[in-house]
Amino acid sequence: MRVVDFGRDVTGHRAPVTGVAFDPTGRLLASCSYDGSVLLWDVTTAQNPELVGRLRHRRLVNSMCWNPADGSLLATASADKTAAVWRVRAHEDPQLVSVLARHTDDVNAVAWTPDGERLVCVSEDGRVSLWNARSAALIGELGAHTAHCMAVAINGDGLIATVGEDGLVSVGHPDDRSAAATRSYPSSVEGCAWSRSGKLLAIARDDGVVDLLHPDLSVQISIQVSSVAARSVAFTDDDSAVVVGAYDGRVHVLGVDGELVRWFQDARFWPRSVATHGGIVAVGSFWSRPHLLELATGRDLTGGHEPTHGPNALAVRGEELIIGCDSGAVLVTDPSGRADAGPPRVVQVAESPILSLAVHGDLVYAGTYSGHVVAHRLDQISGESTAAQVSSVPLGAPVPSLTCVDGRIVAGTYNGDLIALDPATLAISDSGPAHGGSVKALAAFGDGFLSASTDRTVAVGTLTDRQVLWDHGNLVNDVATLGGRVVASAGRDHTVRVARLAPAGDGRWQVVEQHTLLGPDESVKCVGLLGTPEAPVVLAGSYDFGLHLWQVRWGRTADGLVNGRLLSEFRQGLSCIAALSPDLLAVASWDGRIALVGTDHDGRVRVRSLMDVEDLVSQRGQLAEVTR
């Protein structure tokens, strides 16, 4: 398994912060990240957290949990398919106690039993497993979800609650599973937490609702917190309130009677994780350090975060490559290497991450995590300019996909909405039928566009008349086109689908031939196409850090059962691919590197050159400020 590597250590994380957890005393805060590290902060003085320790996994770390009986033990859950137990003492180097290593998929969360001897782990394959934490022996399976199991929490009586993307909530005791209670929801449930008393279970639902449940899973109250997914929950010390992190970018504080007490907002928040202790709220971040908020006022006590410039989106105008980053920066560079190309140009478009990009004329459009689409003139992006930009109204959810179709900008949201925007004003002009999940990718095709969604489908058509082309076995991350006839899609089912399409009349399309290409042993995140429709080359980037290649030969369907060739390796998962020409692709990784991959005169595909986003930003010295 390739190991995540962001280079030298710094005084914070090198990628977004995925999880936060206070130790039982409240003096130590653990934070984990996409960069594969767990950082330990002394937060005795919350205004000045001191970095006192660093732990490492081989892949991103999803969450952590402190031992309730021995506050020096910390359990961590990682996408390297392990859970680990560490001993953390003041003024001592952390020690690895045990590794729970027989998981068959990413470990999403861990929780300790009250005696501090056993760990419950939940993973992407839906499994709920019980382990001896010190000997790392698997005790047994406690159950399973039919989709990703996302979170686990255990109360003082030993009741284990698990929630998952299948909408199932399950509560039971590890020593008596016959008394387990279950409750099903039509939407994914991704967060759960017991009250300190253990008498209430809070669950965070994908439809923006938080339910407070009794141990038998009867409902005390349902609270509509947000129009987008509620992702994380934590009770305050006295159980009088619940802190909720939602994908509207806010942290909501709710009384247990359902009343909204207050909410906090910062474009740098990544509220997939929240934790509370002693009047302080910790929140995950897209920047380099977790946020520490004063519960009573919402004041951010930490400040001073450094941006992380992981590239999430690519777009092309002529010979210019446009890069959208976690930091909210947009970079414009000419990767051709021409002497007159000039230095990179950088502008801070937003404080929240840029998730998607599209180009129309001399404007670049950026879809943000905060749920806006922002337009900026490309010829006014420079290190010195303070050019004004245009922003849409909030679209109700983050915007992971954009395309330009028929003179309009089409945005796809986390809520599954397809929304058309006027390219000049970014006013909403129309909307279409929603997908049943987040719209992960859009691409212009024919007289309409393609869409790829977490509802496992790839669809084509206009905004109001859409046709499903095919389904993947799991969510679809990306879609690409070549020559107006070839379409490829990348899925979490570890496959790439590539097909030749032909018009079938009345705006419909017919799949003439399709190949299923077996990918790596992890989710395929992005896909691109080189060559010609008659002889396409498929390139796909994976969470296994690899860039994989297939040469498609139409008429030989058995070739679809052949693994792709590993073309290149990166130091992190790959995030996005954009075509600079039919024979040249830009491929980006969350380690900050961007590779130019092209076809030589002899037909051989190779990596021609590499760029580093941090270097591109540093060449400008300082990001341009934007007049809002």
Automatic annotation (TrEMBL):
Q: InterPro entries from the entry?
A: WD40/YVTN_repeat-like_dom_sf, WD40_repeat_CS, WD40_repeat_dom_sf, WD40_rpt
Note the Pfam families from the entry: WD40
Cited PANTHER family: F-BOX AND WD REPEAT DOMAIN CONTAINING 7, WD40 REPEAT PROTEIN
Q: What is this protein called?
A: Repetative protein
Q: Record the organism.
A: Micromonospora endophytica
